[in-house]
Write a structure and sequence with these properties.
One of its GO terms (molecular function) is phosphotransferase activity, for other substituted phosphate groups. It contains 17 helices and 8 strands. The protein is 53% helix and 9% strand.
Length: 470
């Protein structure tokens, strides 16, 4: 255990030194580029060294303050990106204050500081990506063992079969526990048979285990509480299966949820008061910005739909449909019509891949999400946000609430034009699909923040530009 701790500290120290060198070098390159572009003035070498030194130290301290050098950091890569943005953003203000207060005569004016920090963000994100992805410096991968080999534990085997699903950890195996449902349990993974009361602590120490995942089917009377308590005191993480799956997959496994986990887990509350206070203002601003650039495409789309079949069928180019919004309140969503006028003559139906009710124009505008643009009106009315779970039809919601546990909890936030579920599970045309999308929707409800919203917006642009939508 001591050697494990020593190795962790060594990796952390190497990471700090490596990133310090990268930050200093990037700041030097940024000054050279700004100098060539004429956006800053030549300075003495001493002044340049002071500016770069202050920026490097401040960024390292801010990164340390947000946990980027924590040896026990258990974070997704998305979470690491958010921490980098926060640390570098905070550094901007600290560097300005330090340079103005202590080195005002040496401060480099112009675009040097913002350009340097923008480049630092890009380089640090890329550096963390490759170190995590390739396992460089021993970062991004932890040694774990799963306590349990039954039905609950088997979700790891089913959902995380590929190597790409296990980038963040090395799984040594599954330890069967009395009470596990072995008939529905682990099939193809390595099983580790040992007496958990007598030998688990020794096994953890000898194999440098950094995290134990609790995934047994029956907890009462089967868990070695004293052993796990001792492991925790020695720095070994003890993580519930639900928390582990949430962290590694970006979803909440709804069918494994239990009330006490919801009650005691972090999240499911909005702690960002600025985000709450400016919710409508931010969404209205974004809607205005999108409308400013998109109105020619919207006008052209409306004209094409009218010429395609609107003038012949005397049907509107827009399609209004009742949806379920915040706290279950109904509202009328507005979209460009992408289906035939008689698409639902036999009642509400799930949309499907290659749906024969979709028009020729409808296939194109659905692929590039153009049919969603009129929903900017719903954003202006305050019925929708830019980011949130996609609103569903009340006919389907009634059925889904009966058949899917916790489905109603997705209505605790405003529905959105784009959502976490749409990025990770892009098509939903059945109850089974709705269950899968709910896992991502609840993850968003639990972790909603400005930074997560920004990440979803950025990735949604990729979906629109490359036509990855439905």
């Amino acid at each position: 255990m001591a050697s494990n701790k020593k190795n962790q500290n060594k990796r952390s120290n190497v990471l700090v030194v490596t990133e310090a060198i990268l930050i200093a070098y990037v700041c030097y390159i940024a000054h050279f580029i700004m100098l060539q572009l004429g956006h800053t003035l030549p300075v003495e070498l001493e002044a340049l060294a002071v500016n770069i030194g202050v920026m490097t130290i401040v960024i390292l301290l801010c990164s340390l303050s947000v946990g980027l050098y924590e040896t026990k950091l258990r974070e997704t890569f998305r979470g690491i990106i958010r921490r980098i943005f926060v640390s570098v953003g905070l550094s901007y203000f600290v560097v300005e204050i330090v340079l103005e207060a202590l080195f005002s005569n040496m401060k480099i004016e112009g675009y040097f500081l913002p350009a340097s920090l923008c480049m630092v963000i890009i380089v640090l994100v890329l550096f963390r990506y490759f170190t995590n992805r390739l396992g460089l410096l021993g970062l991004g991968r932890v040694s774990i063992v799963v306590l349990g080999a039954g039905e609950r534990a088997s979700i790891i085997e089913r959902r995380m079969r590929r190597d790409v699903d296990r980038i963040g950890f090395d799984l040594l195996g599954f330890i069967p526990v009395p009470g596990d449902n072995r008939e529905e349990g682990i099939r193809n993974e390595k099983l580790i048979h040992l007496n958990i009361e007598q030998n688990l602590q020794q096994f953890v120490a000898e194999n440098d285990i950094e995290e134990v995942i609790i995934a047994c089917d029956q907890r009462r009377g089967t868990l070695p509480i004293d052993v796990l308590f001792d492991c925790r005191l020695r720095g070994v993480e003890v993580t519930d299966l639900l928390d582990f799956m949430e962290r590694e997959t970006g979803q909440i496994v709804v069918n494994l949820m239990y009330p006490s986990w919801v009650i005691y887990s972090n999240g499911f509350q909005t702690q960002n008061y600025l985000r709450d206070a400016l919710d409508y203002s931010i969404n209205a601003f974004l809607a205005t910005l999108v409308l400013f650039f998109a109105w020619p495409f919207m006008l052209l789309t409306a004209l094409i739909i009218y010429l395609d079949d609107g003038h012949r069928t005397k049907t509107s180019v827009f399609y209004k449909q009742e949806r379920v919004g915040l706290n279950g309140k109904l509202f009328k969503i507005v979209k460009f019509r992408s289906m035939r006028p008689d698409a639902e003559k036999d009642g509400a139906k799930w949309a499907s891949v290659n749906d024969n009710r979709v028009t020729r124009i409808g296939q194109f505008i659905r692929k590039y999400r153009i049919d969603e643009l009129p929903q900017l009106w719903n954003v202006f009315k305050g019925e929708m946000s830019f980011i949130g779970p996609r609103p569903e039809r009340p006919q389907f919601v009634e059925q889904l609430v009966r058949e899917i546990p916790y489905y109603n909890q997705r209505h605790n936030v405003k529905p959105g034009l784009a959502g976490w579920a749409q990025l990770n599970y892009p098509y939903g045309a059945s109850i089974e699909d709705s269950m899968e999308k709910l896992k991502f929707d609840l993850y968003y409800v639990k972790h909603q923040s400005l930074l997560l919203d920004m990440l979803i917006l950025i990735r949604t642009v990729e979906v629109v530009l490359f036509g990855k939508g439905r």
